[in-house]
Amino acid sequence: MDVEEALRTRRSTRAFLPTPVPRARIERLLALATHSASNSNSQPWHVHVLTGAAKRALAEAIWEVLDADGRMVRAEYPYQPTPDSWAEPFRTRRAEFGSRLYHDTLGCAADDIVRRDAHHRRNYDFFGAPVGIVLTVSSRPLAGALVDAGLFLQALMLAARHDGLDTCPQASFIDFSPVLRQHLPVPDDHVIVCGLALGYADPTHGLNGLRTPREPVDRIATFHEDR
Prior knowledge:
Blueprint: H1 3-9, H2 23-33, E1 45-50, H3 52-69, H4 90-105, H5 113-121, E2 131-138, H6 142-162, E3 166-170, H7 177-183, E4 190-199, H8 217-220
Antiparallel strand pairs: 1-2, 2-4, 3-4
Helix pairs in contact: 1-6, 2-6
């Protein structure tokens, strides 16, 4: 698979097979991702890789808090506005995605809170992926490190796709940063950026048939040329 095919076939996979991914293979993908650009070669990222019992323990800890207190909104950096404050055209794109996911794919009505919550819970077991990754970056300085984190994450996802694996980046984990810090040795001067599910997509699961449209180039690019 070349880079173009990896880009075109990358999807946010939300249902995985239990097939293990060998540690050596994960290490190779991470080594490739370290070639990402970063400000002044600062390489501010760190990843925590969870499998087996460690992954399950984190999921159960988050579920316990979720069941007791609901959504613990404790993001360590300003990730996104509240649903009501999204500007256009992002508000419409977000709503269309939600409709495609919950109504079209899962068959959930807008008021079916039970089924929607059941799907949301699956985030914290990394959608059943055999590998869960938590990405952190240095907070000194944070703004530039978050840009570098995005570059690292994209490189990791494309390397995985090139290798026949599938991924899903997951901002949902930042709502439970205190729980993550209880289970992972995250330094005080690092910020939890997101989670990432890694493994093999379940080809029979309807969630993996979800496709989202992309804007054409003439709507996202302005060319400034000599005339």
